[in-house]
Design goal:
Layout (H helix, E strand, L loop, with lengths): L1 E6 L3 H15 L3 E5 L10 H6 L3 E5 L7 E5 L4 E5 L11 E6 L2 E7 L9 H23 L3 E6 L12 H4 L7 H12 L3 E2 L13 E2 L11 E2 L2 E5 L1 H4 L2 E6 L15 E5 L1
Helix pairs in contact: 3-5
The structure holds one DNA strand.
Length: about 250
Amino acid sequence: MKLAAWNVNSLNVRLPHLLDWLKSAAPDVVCLQETKLEDVKFPLQAIQDAGYNAVFDGQKTYNGVAILSKSRAEDVVKGIPGYADEQKRVIAATVDGVRVVCAYVPNGQAVDSDKYRYKLEWLGALTGYLRGALADHPSLALLGDYNIAPEDRDVHDPAAWAGQVLCSAPERAAFAALLALGLTDSFRQFEQPAGTFSWWDYRMNAFRRKMGLRIDHILLSAPLAARCTAAGVDAEPRTWERPSDHAPVVATLN
DNA sequence: ATGGCCTGCAACGCAGGA
């Protein structure tokens, strides 16, 4: 079972890339972030024609999440129960016995901004939600754009990014709190090439210059981590014409 | 050189991303 997460930065623009990637990578489940589409505009037919089911929760202009799966998605839950949020950032469903939680963590803009405080509050709400979800669903995966580089080795220039948003100590502590629920960073279960990232700024030729961050993650509960045989980043779509600034991240379960 | 790019908006310069 191949799980993936991809911030597509507008599903409207990226639909051709998504369809190409579904064909070449053939994931069983893909969690999308930043679809930026109202539900009535979701390209359901094209995705079904590609052999996938889809559940989604979107809005105009910003945010928006979806879970695409070859098998049916059941018990769909949108948002973080009990946490009122205008922004469409979370959707969960059960696929082939795996509880899949798709999350688009707030960016945070700058340390000490209102958006940063919202990010930390939001992460606290997500952590509380997952504590209960893990009790109900021992086989759980949390996939998406976390907007957190967990360690300095996930950053092309740790000195330049030290203390900045995406790398600050409170954000890294929030990531550690997710791990403390019993989740494992699938990427770190395996040897990885140095300088493996999942996001590169559109500016400065950042991708060509390997100036990236690893901020998209697949965290697995213990039963799923035990089944995980491979994990990594598929940077190829980032090389395509008019790409998303994020690349898909992937984890394979036996 | 502290900004450089991309997306969506009833836009024609802005907000937001990271």
